[in-house]
Amino acid sequence: MLDEPARILIAAALCWINFVAIDVFFRLPESGGVCGATAIAEEVEKGGGNLHGGFMLGNIVSSPDASAGTLLASCGVYCAGLPGGLFAALLVYIGNRICYDPGYAGTTGAITATFLVYGMTQIGFAASDFIAGMVIAILTIQGISHARSSRLIGRLWEIKVRLLGGGQ
Amino acid sequence: MIAIYLCAAIAVYAALRIITERNTMRKLPFLNVISFAVTAIIALLIPHPLTILAAAAFFVGSTFESNAIASTWSGGMKRNG
Predict the structure, then answer these.
(1) Can you tell me the distance from the alpha carbon of B4 to that of B38, in angstroms, rounded to the nearest whole number?
(2) Which of the ends of chain A has fewer CB neighbours closer than 10 A, N or C?
(3) Contact (Cβ atoms closer than 8 angstroms) between residue A66 and residue A105
(4) pLDDT band for position B56 (cuts 50, 70, 90)
């Protein structure tokens, strides 16, 4: 069994992959969902970042997306096991509708994270590792360097468009 | 136990970044990090099934506030025509 810091770092990597993959797949970097998200993207671009990465940063700020889904599903599994995680997915769905978000990235992220976290708790991880891991994962995207993180997301978005289509 | 201190440290770090960032729109992603950290701390402090409701209510509420601040600051309805 691993120590808690090592488990938190592995959980952070898994949460990061879960939410970035789902957000990019659900086309969050394509455009701003609300005008506030577009304005954040423009400011990030002015600060040396990528516009598409900025759209994703803005959309994460403006509506509960897959990152919020991953965090709340981890909290749900921590507090009430598998049903708690699925209940969290329902709450994220309601949150999306409250924030005028027509997408399903948050709900999908919450459901996949519920099964991911529940599965990992069966092999020695704790749900609290995933709660802290998700906070580290969002820190890397939203809290260190907007220019660098937006350029990274912009590159992932280009790869997604090239492989699966869906961009302009 | 490390998890909760880590979340608290990240929240304090994000608060310092908000203070030092001059551009209002670029403050909002840091505010988002604080919302994540506080939601995590709520859940880690109170391991009760109803906590998930409190954590989700806090998180969705703070996201909605950020949404309102960003949309108003960027010109709101006027921007959309």
Answers:
(1) 10
(2) C
(3) yes
(4) very high
B70:A58 CB<8 A: yes
Q: Does A147 touch chain B (CB under 8 A)?
A: no
* CA–CA distance, B19 with B76 (Å, rounded to integer): 25
Using one digit for the tens of pLDDT, what is the confidence trace for A119-135?
999 999 999 999 999 99
The pLDDT value given to residue B78: 63
For chain A, how long is the longest CA-to-CA vector? 47
CA count, 13 A, side-chain hemisphere, B66: 29
What are the structural domain ranges in chain A?
4-164
Most B CBs within 10 Å, among A45, A61, A87, to test the B interface:
A61
**Å from A10 to nearest chain B CA?**
13
CB-CB under 8 Å, B6 with A135: yes
More confident residue, B80 or A26: A26
List the one residue out of A80, A152, A13 whose CA is nearest residue B48: A80
How many CA atoms does the CB half-sphere of A88 hold within 13 Å? 42
- The pTM (predicted TM-score) of the whole model is 0.93
By the CB < 8 Å criterion, does A110 face chain B?
no
Furthest-apart CA pair in chain B: how many Å? 51
* pLDDT < 50 stretches in chain A: none
